[in-house]
Amino acid sequence: MEKMDHFSHIHPLLLKQEKNNNRVLCSGCENTISGPVFSCELCNYNLHKTCAEMPRHVKHPFHPEHPLVLLSTSPYEGRYICDSCRGIFQNFVYHCYICGYDLDVSCASLCNPDDDHKHEFMSVTNPQQFVCYACGLQGKEGLACLCTICQIWVHSSCAELPLAVRIKNHDHPLKLTYALHHFYGFWGKITCGVCNGEMSAAFAGYFCSMCRFPVHLKCLQDLRDEWEAVIEDEKSSTDYETGSLDVDFGYSFFGHEHVLKLTDEESDLQYSGKLCDGCVQPITPPLLSCEEENCAFILHQSCVELPRTKLHPFHAHPLTLLPKAPNYDGIYRCDGCKRLSNGFVYRCDGCQFDLDVCCGSLQERIEHESHMHPLLLKKTTVARQCKGCHRWSKYVFVCDVCEDFAIDCGCATLPLKAWYMYDKHPLSLNYFVEEGLREYECGICNEKICPKQWFYYCDDCDSGVHPYCVEDKSRRVKFGGSFQYDVHSHPLALVEETDQNTKCEACGELCNGWTLECGECKSYFHREGQCFWKEFKKSAKYLELSGAMRHRYAANVLASTPNVRTK
User: Fold this and answer.
1) Model confidence pLDDT, tens digit, residues 216-244
2) Which among 219, 167, 171 has a CA at the least distance from the CA of 191?
C-alpha cells in the first residue's frame, strides 16, 4: 500500500480506494471524496490523490506576475475568497505572498501550462492589458498571441522566437525554456549571460544546461543579427531532464572553497560531539566534511540540500539561504525563536528579516505534547502570548480549535530532556500547571521560577531550572573558526570561555563570557559587553555608513551580542 508524507498533515497518509461518500470531504479541495484517496488512519484527514499530488509552487496563467505557493489552510484569520470563481474556502489555497492573490485548488487545476511549451500560438485581439507569460513584461490591449491549450498570453514578438538558437561567444546551443525555476527555484537570482542584468527564474529564457548559461528573451530579441536558429536534430542535444537535479557540493554559495566528502556510515564516531556549520546542531551521518587537513567545515546532507529560496509563513517576501549572515561577523538573532546563531540564515535583505535553519524549516502543521490538537504555524496580525514562557509574539504555533492556545518557536522547539553540569540526572520539560504547585528556585540563576510557565524539572532532586538558563546563550552558536576583525591584524576565533586570568588586549579587563582569541599571538578580546561595543564603533564598516544605514547596522550587531537577553 502506497504511503505519503504530506506537508499538510502530521501523520503518514495511506492510499486507498474510496467509493462515493457524501459524508466525507477532501481536506484539500473541500469536495466529497471518491476514487483514489490518501487517508490518515489515526484521524479524520483525507485527500484526493490529485489534491495530495499538487505541486507546492506553480506559475499560473491567472496570475503570471508572481509564483503561487500551496498552503494547507487560509493565510488569513478566517476563510479566503478565490480571486477566480469568488468562492469562499478554508483549506488548500494557492497564495501569492506579494499580491495577496488566492486560487482554490479547483480553479488552479483548470490550466496546467507545459514547462517546455511547444504548442502553436494563435494571433488574436486581447481586449485588456496583460502580463506576458514568457518575458514577464506588460502587454497592451490589442494584437497578441494566445495558447488555447494552456490559456497563456504572450507578446507577438515572444511567440515568434525559435525553440533553440546558437549565439556568438558560446559553444553550445541555447534552448527556449519555461522551466528555469527547476534549476534556480522560483525566487532564485539569475544573471543574464549576455547583458549581466538580473533575470527571473519564474519566466521564460534561453538556457544552456551544460554550462548553466541563461539569457534574457529580450536580449535575443535585441540582438537578432548575432544568433541563428538551430535545426531539430541539433537542438536535441540541448534537452535536459528537470525532474531531479544533482546538488553541486562545490558551489561557492556555501561559502566554502574546498571539496566536500560524503560520509554515510552511521557507526562513524569521529564526528561525535561536532556541530553542523549549517543548522549548528549535533551532526550525524549522512554528512559532508571538508577534505582539507586543517579545515573543520562540516554539514548535514540535509543542510546541503536545503532550498536556496523559499516562502515562509512568517514573512511576506521570499527568503534567500546564505552561508553567513551579513551582520558584522556572521552572528545574528533569529527573528523567529530569538536565539543567537552563526550558521546558515534564511534572509530577506530588504527587510533585514532573518530565520535560522531550524525555524526556516519548521513544518506548517505539528503535534506537540503540550496540547491535544494539532498546531499550525502562522504569523498572526496581533501578538499572542506563549503558553510556555508568557512572552508575546506574532511568530507562533496556534490551535484552530482552542482560540487561546499559542506557543512561540522557542518553546515549540525545546528538547523534552536536558542536562546541566550541577545535576547528574536528566531534566524533564514540565508543561502542565498544577494547582498549589510551589515556586522553585532556578538551580542556575537562583531566581524564582513562575509555576505557571514551562520549566525543566529533576524528579530525583526535586529541583527546577528555567529553560533559557539550560539553553544558555550558545545553543545555536558554533565556536572556533576564524574571522578578520578590525581590532587585530590576525584572524580571531570565537571561544566560549578562557582561563580565569586572561585579559582583554583592548581594555585590560578580564575576559568573561564570549571571547575572541588569536591563535598566533595568544591575544584575547571581548566579544560581548561595553568593550566589544566600543571597538565595534571603530570598525571600518561602521564608520563608512551614515544616518539610518549606520543606525540599522549597529542595531543588528547589538541584537547579536549575547549579553542582550530576551526573557
Assistant:
1) 888 877 776 667 777 644 444 444 433 33
2) 219
What are the start-end ranges of the H helices in 391-472? 409-412, 467-471
Please provide residue 522's backbone torsions phi and psi, each rounded to the nearest 5 degrees: 55, 45
Provide the terminal-to-terminal Cα distance of the chain, rounded to the nearest Å. Answer: 48
How many residues in total does the chain contain? 567
Angle 316-322-323 from CA coordinates, rounded to 5°: 155
Q: DSSP E strands: which ranges in 432-563?
A: 440-441, 448-449, 455-458, 463-465, 480-483, 492-495, 515-517, 524-526
Cα–Cα nearest to 346, from 355, 336, 337, 335? 355
Q: Give the Cα-Cα-Cα angle 75, 79, 81 (nearest 5 degrees).
A: 90
- Single pTM value for the model: 0.59
Q: How far apart are CA 468 and CA 566, in angstroms?
A: 9
pLDDT per position as a tens digit, 89-144? 988 999 987 788 899 998 888 877 665 666 788 888 876 788 888 888 888 777 88
Q: Are 27 and 45 in contact (CB under 8 A)?
A: yes
How many Å apart are CA 260 and CA 278, to the nearest integer? Answer: 14
Neighbours of 308 (CB within 10 A): 16
**For the sheet containing 152-154, what is the strand order?**
122-126, 142-147, 152-154
Cell 525532474, residue? 243
H, E, C per residue of 512-536: CCCEEECCCCCCEEECCHHHHHHHH
Helix (H, G, I), strand (E, B) or coil at 544: helix
Q: Are 354 and 336 in contact (CB under 8 A)?
A: no
Q: Which residues pair with 175 in a beta bridge?
A: 164, 207
Mean pLDDT of the region 330-344: 90
Question: What is the per-residue pLDDT for 566?
Answer: 44
